[in-house]
Amino acid sequence: MWNLLRYVWNHPLNADGKVAALWRVFRWQIASRLMPGLIALPYAGGTFLFATRGMTGATGNWYCGLHEVNEMAFVLHLLRPDEHFLDVGANVGSYSILAGGAARARVTAVEPIPTTFAHLQRNVVLNGLNERVRCCQAGLSDAHGVLRFSSDLDTVNHVLTEGEDLPGADVPVMRLDDLVGQDVPTLIKIDVEGHELAVLRSGSDTLRDARLMAVVMETNGSGARYGVSDDALIAVMQECGFAPFGYDPFRRKLTDTVQANGNTVFVRDRAAVEERCRSAPKFRLVNGEI
User: φ and ψ at 265, to 5 degrees?
Assistant: First the structure.
């Protein structure tokens, strides 16, 4: 609990409302015990996310406005209405609802875990986004087939390695290029807990298409379980014409400093992306605007 309170207290979006942020934590701790089950929490741009106890991503957005402020703000600032956003590893839909509900983009949300996929679908229905968000219960990899995923690790479910004896589910996987076809996204988010290289290898045509402006990808060393380094991911992206950056959501500028053990924003044309981000409207959060 102390780690959570420290995180919420120090979150940049809570800088002008630290006490109110702590009050949101305590309200949730009480409400989730008194009313077990799904509770709809206010989110960005008038949207909502269902949450239950243990859903750290969804509750993090309630505590802090945007759990991953740099990357989530980048999604809001870059996308325009009706552009295509591909969310690979959508989990319960934090990024998909952000893109589809607040930024009004078209979304393809890919989530392999059956129970998590059900939560994703509920959040899409809750926000009336059935026509805007396409949900795909599948995984992405470098070849079609079936892979076994862990199933009870919340935001860190992943493709199981041979030595991992964890509860899991067998899930069909497909290639990114086959999923996208000719509907190339403006922006892709990839968060697949270390399986990123296989996803990238399955999407070479999409990644080289000039219509794709940026990719937000997890680069926190989790690929080590499959013998993959973050440098390998960066190399693939550079071969496809992207450079790695961080994002300052308050100045709306890309930064040359990439967040350690977090996510990297890969951009094809820095000037074009920064101009888009500067001209984007502000979005209302539970603790202010971004």
Answer: -100, 115
- Token pair for 128: 């009336």
Are 95 and 81 a contacting pair, CB within 8 Å?
Answer: no
- Burial annotation 147-158 (CB, 10 A radius, 16+ → b, else e): bbbbbeeebebb
CB 214 within 8 A of CB 79: no
Q: What is the pLDDT of residues 180-235, one digit of tens each?
A: 999 999 999 999 999 999 999 999 999 999 999 999 999 999 999 999 999 999 99
Side-chain half-sphere CA neighbours of 93 within 13 A? 34
Q: How far apart are CA 162 and CA 224, in angstroms?
A: 14
Three-state SS for 273?
helix
Distance in angstroms (rounded) separating the CA atoms of residues 13 and 289: 9
Token pair for 229 = 């380094």
Q: Which of 215, 203, 212, 217 is nearest to 140 (CA)?
A: 203
- Backbone phi, psi, residue 289, to 5°: -135, 160
pTM above 0.90, yes or no: yes
Select the CATH number that applies to the domain covering 67-289 from these four: 3.40.50.150, 3.30.70.141, 3.40.50.2300, 3.30.420.40: 3.40.50.150
Q: Domain locations in the chain?
A: 67-289
